[in-house]
Write a structure and sequence with these properties.
alpha+beta, Alpha-Beta Plaits, 2 domains, two-stranded antiparallel sheet, 17% strand, membrane
Length: 243
């Protein structure tokens, strides 16, 4: 049986650390929770565990240790998955940590070329499939016009003395969400209240764009009422009436 030499140990360990670091560079560049050091450490830990089993010269030990590494990474990955409203965040990060551990296992087993190929595959998934996924998310449904836009109105009420401040805040929130108002109207209600209505034309995900605006405005204590609704399209109504 071939015994693990110190040189073999260092080469395999360096390969595992390097491959994990390469994966972590891409994650760090995109400012993800698990970046350069985390992925490098995960790959290092997986490499060291399997190297230990190789060093003790137990025939079945490397396979058993590799299975334990997979289970352990499952607990570590669960710590980076966070619930965000109706969805979750961190699934890609958890999957990347899992892949870093797999790369470390390959390096520790002496499959250095396979470890490098696995690293390139993980990087390709992040760098190539990311824009492809965005294209699929932005693809229009069958029978829809990708350039079509809808009109929506953001309505809020505020104290009259805060009208100037809230008006500026409204325009700032719309601009931050990439929306340009096509109309802005202010009307004084009874008492000391002022009603502001901003009309915008939106292409794409209407709810997502307007909920960002509402979230920013709702933080201001001067806003007493805040909501948005879609405007009726007069040309569409006319077409439906003539049909």
């Amino acid at each position: 049986m071939h015994s693990l030499t110190t040189l073999d140990f260092l080469i395999r360990l360096a390969t595992g650390v390097g491959c994990g670091a390469l994966i972590g560079v891409e994650r760090q560049w995109r400012a993800r929770m698990a970046g350069l050091r985390t992925n490098a450490l995960v790959a290092t830990g997986a490499t060291l565990f399997v190297l230990y089993s190789e060093a003790v010269s137990d025939t079945g030990s490397p396979t058993r240790v590799a299975s334990y590494v997979v289970s352990g990474i499952g607990f570590l990955g669960g710590g980076v998955i966070l619930r965000d409203g109706a969805g979750v965040r961190g699934l890609n990060t958890a999957a990347t940590l899992w892949c870093s551990a797999a790369v470390g296992v390959l390096a520790a087993s002496g499959k250095l070329t396979l470890a490098l190929l696995g690293t390139l595959a993980v990087l390709a998934v992040h760098l190539v499939l990311r824009p492809a996924g965005r294209l699929l998310d932005g693809a229009p449904a069958a029978g829809t016009d990708p350039d079509a836009s809808v009109r929506a109105t953001v309505h809020l009420e505020c104290e009259r003395r805060s009208e100037t401040h809230i008006r500026a805040l409204l325009l700032q929130a719309l601009t931050a969400s990439g929306l340009a108002p096509t109309g802005l109207r202010a009307r004084r209600e009874g008492g000391d209240l002022t009603s502001l209505r901003a009309t915008v034309a939106i292409s794409g995900d209407v709810a997502h764009a307007l909920e960002q605006v509402v979230s920013r405005l709702s933080l201001d204590p001067g806003v007493s009422d805040l909501h948005w609704h879609l405007e009726e399209d007069p040309t569409r109504t006319e077409r439906e009436a003539l049909a």
